[in-house]
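dude i think i finally got it to work??
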Amino acid sequence: MERVMKILRWIKGKFLTKTFLKFAVVGGSGIIVNMLVFLILTNYTSIHHLVASAIATEIAILNNFTWNHIWTFRKRGEMNILIRIAAFHGSRILGLIVTVAGLYVLSDLLGLPMNPSYLVAIGLGVIVNFLTSDLFVWPGS
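look at this
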């Protein structure tokens, strides 16, 4: 029981914080940036929608990196900016894998409804993204 309480305190210390709230706000801005860039590219250029999606996603990733770097985790330790950007991109790939795998398990293997399953899977991806950012991309307090 003591081990469970220790885990619950660790979770509370990571997710019930201003840092996680800032991370969530930055993530919300990334959704907006992603969608706006996608809409601009698909409505005002001849770029194919799948290419537009990749471009919009990359711009959103860079948006999120920038705001997390200067706001969410600004007091964290020193690291070469190019290494940090590479680590951030790698952590987003891990979050993507967790999201897709979570959707597959919930929807395809367990037979749960697709849309609620996707929301849960996104939540799992957010958790992975936050933990990798907190522990590896901006290690610190």
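The CA atoms of residues 61 and 89 lie 8 Å apart.
im so relieved honestly
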